[in-house]
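Quarterly update, task 2.4: UFG-bound model.
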Amino acid sequence: MKKTMTILVTGGAGYIGSHTCVELLEAGFNVVVVDNLFNSKHEAIRRVEQITHQEISFYELDILDKHGLDRVFRSHEIDAVIHFAGLKAVGESCLQPARYYQNNVNGTLVLLEAMHDAGVKKLVFSSSATVYGDPQSVPIREDFPLSATNPYGRTKLMIEDILRDFSTADQLANTPNPWKIALLRYFNPIGSHVSGLIGEDPRDIPNNLMPYVLQVAVGKLSQLSIFGDDYPTHDGTGVRDYIHVVDLAKGHLKALAALNKDFYAEGACRPFNLGTGNGYSVLDMVNTFQQVIGKPVNYKIAPRRSGDIAVCYADPAYAEHALDWRAEKSLADMIVDAWRWQESNPLGYDS
Ligand code: NAD
Ligand code: UFG
């Protein structure tokens, strides 16, 4: 009988992690989560269990705690790791760079050491479209030049470099069990599981567009500031590639499957864009929200936000070809599902 695979999910109580846990459990994987709950609540894990009628082995643990990670690897026969755990607020990373390098880069190094010691060398890593900096053209392909404009982005670039170096070293040494790594470069995840039970639950005032729009529409915040209407785009506001978080979550299962395919046989570290290939402006998002949900979103035009780029959207062709994955949900699906979560949980997991 085929053994059920066990996946360790770091940061599994977070926004993307919790949605990925649902997909993993529904696909028949055992799931072990390590999360220090810095930016999440245990309630998210409970809700995942409620949706799937299955249990998660949960450890409230920091990935910087090597002994703790060793214990987790000793307690479960882990087949692969999906690594979400990290700090992700761009503005905060500019004010507290040491914290970001320590948590994201050192945290990943500790995790890699624990994985190496346990002989687990399959990894799916949460990277970001931020590693393309300000791209020269769109759509963005995986072979575009990489750069970063803030400490958060630099942590993602550094981790990508570290993972490429680990993989190259194994290939040079002809290691029998080489690193097999998928770098998933997410574009802009929004939306929620269709149940409305799990979703994005920002700790403070949201930095990102969609949670801000939701909180204005629900009456928690008074007005959205649209950061700039003088970009070289169809209506002057910034264009992004918004992707439904469930499509994104499914991409992780496809990446896990790919690690067992021939093109990973000798070990490799490969990047994949997870985006839809469509770009929508801030005003497109606000207008679509108002049309689909039928609620007004009070907004004003404000100055550009420092560090923002005009346009960012993916060429997802490589992920489609190599992973057999493509985003399926429409912008209306993303907005309806996001609203369902917001409306039924106005205070997030504390509702
Ligand atoms: P999130 O903050 O909701 O989830 C991250 C989880 O990691 C949280 O539950 C947090 O408590 C946990 N965590 C952080 N540091 C930890 C540590 N040292 N030890 C253990 N747990 C720790 O964020 P998310 O939106 O789900 O993002 C997941 C990953 O995807 C992050 O690495 C993020 O940088 C990356 N990413 C997110 C986006 C986005 O727009 N949401 C875009 C690109 C990349
Ligand atoms: N925006 C506003 N008002 C707001 C918030 C955002 O007008 O209150 C605009 C931004 O200027 C931008 C667009 O909405 O044009 C999207 O902004 P987000 O903050 O939602 O997303 P970003 O594209 O700036 O960044 C996100 C994550 C990064 C990640 C990047 C690429 O926050 O961590 O996507 O994956 F690197």
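Highlight for this quarter: The pocket of nicotinamide-adenine-dinucleotide (ligand 1) is lined by residues 11, 13-17, 34-40, 62-64, 84-88, 103, 107, 126, 128, 186, 188-189 (CB under 6 Å).
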